[in-house]
Amino acid sequence: MTDAITAPIGIVQEDPPRRRSLRPRAMPARWRITAWIIVSTVFTLLAVGLMGRSIFLSSVDQDANVDIEQEAQEFLRFLEDSSTEFTSAEGLLQEYLDRQSVHSNEIILGAVDGAPVATANGLVEGSDASLGFAGGQTLVLQMLDLEENAGVVESTAAGPLRWGRVDFTAGDAQGALLVLQFTEAPRAAVDQSVVTIAWVALAGILLSSGVAWLVAGQILAPIRAVHRVAREINEHDLTARVPVNGTDDIAAVAITFNQMLDRLEDVYATQQRFVDDAGHELRTPITIVRGHLELLSEDQDERRETLRLVSGELDRMTRIVTDLLVLARAQQPDFVRIAGCDAATLTLDIEAKAQALGDRRWQLMEVAEGHASCDPQRITQAVLQLSANAVQVTEPGDRIRIGSRFDGEGAQRRLRLWVQDEGPGVASADAARIFERFVRGGAPGDTAGPRRGSGLGLAIVRAIADAHGGSAWVDSVLGEGATFGIDIPAPDSTDAGEANVIIESLSGKDA
């Protein structure tokens, strides 16, 4: 009976933190975008309308002032031209007013000795009727008595007006020309125009609302596609991708989302491959270990033999797990760390380390001279793995050759490292797939050769070569030994531009 594990007294077990659920907004994004466009459009049109109305009303007042000044200038020129012809102020005013043509919002009035005598439309009859608005006579008399020659009256029976006065002397009489400009009608016209513009703006808002709804739908279409793809993805199928249209920011979001899915799919595939491989390869040694332990004898000699077999299987399990972890890490960005190294020094170090792998006649056939950009530790691991495989397929005293050389020139130059053995060789059928996981090569019927391994060593060699942007290869004739090697890019330093590009592309895996 197994007791349940409980927490020590005095220690409170806290519940794991719960993820905060993100409550969806009450209004969909498409409606929010449309609403913000409508609100901003309304505020913009409102501001433009109010500002435009203010500008137009100011223009009405300016036009009234200009008309008054223009009329005053014309009367002054008339006085200069007629100073010797008229001795009567009333006659002079009558002559000038008869020549004037006024519009409906304008009154031009002449006065002698502070009393109105005539207008541009006829004589003053002494009542408001001749001026056209209630209280006109009283207002005119006030204007004639003021010391100022111009002013503004904001409220009259006919609306606001602006006025100006020109005083003159003819004979013994004091005359005055009074010009009145009413701005009520022009202001009403401005307000009517603003109302018309407002109706047009309302129609424009309705039209822009429809356009905003359609545009928002098009903009959010990739987001909906991301949502749809995200809902379709499950732990068993990560192949769905978001369609990418265009090159704008929304397309960049879709591209980034697809790249994230690619990384997730790679991680999932690596994890699944690791689980499958581990389950496939560890099942046999576990079964062997369990079988021997269940039949463990009391005899000391048999017990020692059983423990030796069990220890060997456990060692093999450890190696398999270690190799699987290396292959799993090969998918990570920091699997290789690119640095500059001397190819000759690297080759000599590998040859020295390989001699400790077995009692063989190790021969260093050729040494590359020059520099290369690579991960020296990973390259050493790959070549030593090839050397260990060579030891497994050969006997003590057999010759194993190691070498390195540069092939090609400039940006196409490559560093080739190889190991040659005198073993049984590799069948042509096995050569095409020998670098795959759990594939063991060897001559037909050979059970003492490379089939004793886990079948992961050459897969690790290929993973290291691929991480450098290179390749792993084998050259063999069955029964005449085999040559295994790797090629990695090693651009000539004289071609600095292309060399830097390759080095940066490899270093980008460490980012």
Which tags fit this structure?
single chain; 511 residues; alpha+beta; 6-stranded antiparallel sheet; 5-stranded mixed sheet; 13 strands; rod-shaped; disordered N terminus; disordered C terminus
Describe this structure in words.
The chain is of the alpha+beta class. It contains 11 helices and 13 strands. The protein has helices spanning 29-81, 89-98, 136-145, 184-232, 249-294, 300-329, 343-354, 376-392, 428-431, 457-467, 496-507; strands at residues 106-112, 115-119, 122-123, 150-153, 161-170, 173-182, 339-342, 361-366, 371-374, 399-407, 414-421, 471-476, 482-489. The strands form 3 sheets. Strands 3-2-1-6-5-4 form a 6-stranded antiparallel β-sheet, with helices on both faces. α5 (249-294) runs antiparallel to α6 (300-329).
Could you outline the blueprint of secondary structure elements for this entry?
Layout: H1 29-81, H2 89-98, E1 106-112, E2 115-119, E3 122-123, H3 136-145, E4 150-153, E5 161-170, E6 173-182, H4 184-232, H5 249-294, H6 300-329, E7 339-342, H7 343-354, E8 361-366, E9 371-374, H8 376-392, E10 399-407, E11 414-421, H9 428-431, H10 457-467, E12 471-476, E13 482-489, H11 496-507
Parallel strand pairs: 8-10
Antiparallel strand pairs: 1-2, 1-6, 2-3, 4-5, 5-6, 7-9, 10-11, 11-13, 12-13
* CA-atom Rg in angstroms: 51 Å
Mean pLDDT: 80
N- and C-termini, Cα separation: 51 Å
> Which strand order does the major sheet show?
3-2-1-6-5-4
Summarize it.
Helices cover 50% and strands 16% of the residues.
